Amino acid sequence: MDDKWLISIVGPTGIGKTALAIQLAQQFKTEIISADSRQFFKEMSIGTAVPSKVELETIKHHFIQNISIHDEYSVGDFERDAIALLHTLFKEKDIVIMVGGSGLYIDAITKGLDKFPEINPSIRTHLNKVIQDQGISVLQEQLADLDPVYFNKVDTENPHRLIRALEICLGTGKPFTSFLNQSKEQRNFKTISIGIAAERTIIYDRINQRVDKMIDAGLVDEVISLESYKSLNALQTVGYRELFKYLEGDWTLDFAISEIKKNSRRFAKRQLTWFKKNEQTIWVDYQAVIQTVVEKVKQKI
C-alpha cells in the first residue's frame, strides 16, 4: 500500500475541520475517519459538535457515535480498529481522509503508539474511584510524585491522561515516560497533514460563537439527561463538566457558559502546540478555497 495516502486534517476546535474534510472527501471520492475522541460517544452530540445529519449523509464517516459512554475504549483500541478499517478502505480507494482535534489519536494512526505492558485492570478501577470520591487533584499530586517529567508536559486537567499514566507507573513501578519513544510499527501508507490556521483572536471568537450556538441548540438539556452518569470518564470533558457544576448549584448558568468558553480556548491553545510540533504539516488559512487545498495535496502526492 505504499501508493496509498491518508490526508489528516488538523487544527484547533471550531476552526472548520469537518467542512474541509467533507469537501476534500468529495473531491477525491472517498470516506472520512474521525479521530475526535469526544465524538465517539453516541450519548453526546451537541457538546462534542458531532457532524450534522446532512454532513453525515453527504460523506460516509467512521467512528462517529460508535460506542457508549459506558464502554471502555482506549486510544489503543482506536489504533487497532482504525488501522484495520484503513486496510479495508485502501483496497478500493487511493486516498482516505482523517479529521479530528485529538492529537494523540491522530498520532496513533499516523505514527503508531508507544507499547506498554499489560496492567492489572483493578488499578484503573481504583484510580477511577479515587477521582470520583476525592477529585482530580489527588491524581495530579500522585503523578507529579511518580513521574514529574510527564506531569510537566501532560494536560493535567484530562483525567484520561492522568489515569493512563498512573496505571503504568503503579503497575510497573517505573515512570510512564520510560516507555515512550520506543520503536514503533511502520505504516504502509503515506500521510499528508493539512493544518487549518487563523489568527488567535479569530479562533477564540469562533469558539465563543460555537459555545453560544451549543447552548441555543439545547446543550443544557443534553447535560441534564446525562447527569446521573457524570462520574464516567467520557463526561469529564469541556462543555459537560462545567454544566454539571451549574446543575449542582455551585455556579450560575452564565458563569458556567463563560467557563466553557475559557476552557475551550485553553484547549485550542494546547491543540495548536501539539499540532505545530509536526514540521511536515501544510498550513492553510481557514478561509482558503477548496481548490487551493486540493492543489497542495496533489503537489505533495
Automatic annotation (TrEMBL):
The keyword ATP-binding applies. ATP binds at residues 11-18. Its EC number is 2.5.1.75. Residues 36-39 are annotated as: Interaction with substrate tRNA. It is an enzyme of class 2 (transferase). It catalyses: adenosine(37) in tRNA + dimethylallyl diphosphate = N(6)-dimethylallyladenosine(37) in tRNA + diphosphate. InterPro entries: Dimethylallyltransferase, IPT, P-loop_NTPase. The record marks 102, 124 as: Interaction with substrate tRNA. GO terms for molecular function: tRNA dimethylallyltransferase activity. Substrate binds at residues 13-18. Keywords: ATP-binding, Magnesium, Nucleotide-binding, Transferase, tRNA processing. Its cofactor is Mg(2+). SUPFAM superfamilies: P-loop containing nucleoside triphosphate hydrolases (SSF52540). Monomer. Catalyzes the transfer of a dimethylallyl group onto the adenine at position 37 in tRNAs that read codons beginning with uridine, leading to the formation of N6-(dimethylallyl)adenosine (i(6)A). Belongs to the IPP transferase family. HAMAP family: IPP_trans. This is tRNA dimethylallyltransferase. It comes from Sediminicola arcticus. The gene is miaA.
